[in-house]
Amino acid sequence: AQSVTQLGSHVSVSEGALVLLRCNYSSSVPPYLFWYVQYPNQGLQLLLKYTTGATLVKGINGFEAEFKKSETSFHLTKPSAHMSDAAEYFCAVSDQGTSYGKLTFGQGTILTVHP
Amino acid sequence: EAGVAQSPRYKIIEKRQSVAFWCNPISGHATLYWYQQILGQGPKLLIQFQNNGVVDDSQLPKDRFSAERLKGVDSTLKIQPAKLEDSAVYLCASSLVRGSYYEQYFGPGTRLTVT
To answer: What tens-digit pLDDT sequence spans chain A (115 residues)?
Structure first.
């Protein structure tokens, strides 16, 4: 069974400050890891993903995340927050097996950006 | 390319009534997913189709929920009878296989309120 824990249901930063959203996962098989963003009244949009290869992955809108197997973590970062980054962010995991891409999500982190 | 379409976007019903949601996936996507997102939580997979066959419905409350995917394209999710705890956003997603993983694309969701 897989699970995802996002530390902090709410994160607040000032515009221009570093954004750090934490995600830890549990998986009995090598995982695929994803970050999604959800704006109000919209569906989920893929920010970035880790499948294989380089452990530091870059996504859209200046976000990046690093897969750390030893820490079972996949934290999301952005060097400088923008007002438009305010949204809810979800970390998700799927396995490399025969689950046809089934995603297990964390509970989400709401990011607030102050001027 | 058109995205995943869902209708209706909003629905309000009384408990014990029935309701149906419709999803049209991206053309050519063989895998289709229905997720339930309760306020304050991450999406939870209800059912997953590969073409028109069910590959995972382990978390679908089968006494009241049903889903079908006719001809491997459109899908409907039905709740009968609805309970207060069914109030949630119902997300449909479809996926494209990219090498060894499935990249999911989400629709805007249907927000269900049960009174």
So the answer is: 789 999 999 999 999 999 999 999 998 777 899 999 999 888 899 999 998 888 899 999 999 999 999 999 999 999 999 999 999 999 999 876 667 788 999 999 999 999 9
**Which of A51, A102, A106 lies closest to B45 in CB terms?**
A102
Closest among B110, B68, B74, B64 to B90, alpha carbons compared: B110
Tell me, yes or no, if B8 comes closer than 8 A to chain A by beta carbon. Answer: no
Residue A32's contacts (CB-CB under 8 Å, 6 or more residues apart) are A49, A50, A51, A93, A94, A95, A96, B101
Outline where DSSP puts E strands in chain A: 3-7, 10-14, 19-26, 31-38, 44-50, 56-58, 64-68, 73-78, 87-95, 104-105, 109-114
Minimal C-alpha gap between A16 and chain B (Å): 27
| A51 Cβ under 8 Å from any chain B Cβ | yes
Q: Which amino acid, residue B57?
A: D
Question: Which chain A positions have a beta carbon within 8 Å of B44's beta carbon?
Answer: 105
A49 touches B at CB < 8 Å: yes
